[in-house]
UniProtKB/TrEMBL annotation:
Belongs to the VKOR family. The chain crosses the membrane at residues 12-28, 66-85, 97-121, 127-147. Residues 5-146 form the Vitamin K epoxide reductase domain. This is Vitamin K epoxide reductase domain-containing protein. The keyword Transmembrane applies. The keyword Oxidoreductase applies. It is found in: Membrane. It comes from the Bacteria.
Length: 166
C-alpha cells in the first residue's frame, strides 16, 4: 500500500490544470489571431510583442508554436498527476519518476523562454510568467513526491517483515 501523502499529487494536478487553462488561452489566441481580441496583458510587459516574436515558436522562426507545446505539456502533466493519485506505477515505470522527469524538462524549457524574454526580447508576457511560476511549483512538488516514493521504497526494503528466508 502506498503510504505517501496525497496532497503533493493533488496540488500537482491543480497546478497542471491551471497551466492548461493558461496555455489554452494562448493556444486559442494563436489559432484564431484575426478573430481574437488582443491578448490581455495587465500592467506588466507587452504580451503581443512576445507572442509575435520569432521565439514564439520552437525552434525559433520555423517551428511549433510554444503555446501548443505548453498545452500538450500541461495536459500530459494533468493526466499523469491524476493517474498518480490512483497508482504509483505506469507499466514498469514509476509515476513519481515520470512526473519529475517531465517537470524537469518543462522547467528547463520555461527557463529558456524566460531568458529569451529577459535578455533577447527585453519584453515580458504575464501569461509566460504565470506558466514559469507553475512550472517551478510543479517541479518542486514532483521532486518532493519522488523523494517520498524513494524514501518509502528504501524503508520497505529494510523492513525485516518483508525479508524472505533464503
Amino acid at each position: 500500500m502506498d503510504e505517501r501523502p496525497d496532497w503533493p499529487r493533488m496540488a500537482m494536478a491543480f497546478l497542471a490544470l491551471g497551466g492548461l487553462i493558461n496555455s489554452s488561452y494562448l493556444t486559442i489566441h494563436r489559432l484564431r489571431p484575426t478573430q481574437s481580441a488582443p491578448l490581455v496583458c495587465g500592467v506588466v510587459g507587452n504580451c503581443e510583442a512576445v507572442q509575435a516574436s520569432k521565439y514564439s515558436v520552437f525552434p525559433p522562426t520555423n517551428g511549433i508554436p510554444v503555446a501548443y507545446i505548453g498545452f500538450v505539456g500541461f495536459l500530459l502533466l494533468l493526466v499523469l498527476s491524476v493517474l498518480s493519485l490512483q497508482r504509483s506505477q505506469l507499466g514498469r515505470f514509476s509515476l513519481p519518476t515520470i512526473n519529475l522527469v517531465l517537470a524537469s524538462g518543462g522547467l528547463a524549457f520555461s527557463a529558456y523562454l524566460t531568458a529569451i524574454e529577459a535578455w533577447v526580447l527585453h519584453e515580458w508576457c504575464q501569461w509566460c510568467i504565470i506558466s514559469a511560476v507553475v512550472a517551478v511549483l510543479f517541479w518542486a512538488l514532483a521532486g518532493f513526491d519522488w523523494w517520498q516514493a524513494r524514501r518509502l521504497t528504501a524503508t520497505e526494503q529494510l523492513d525485516p517483515a518483508n525479508a524472505t528466508a533464503v
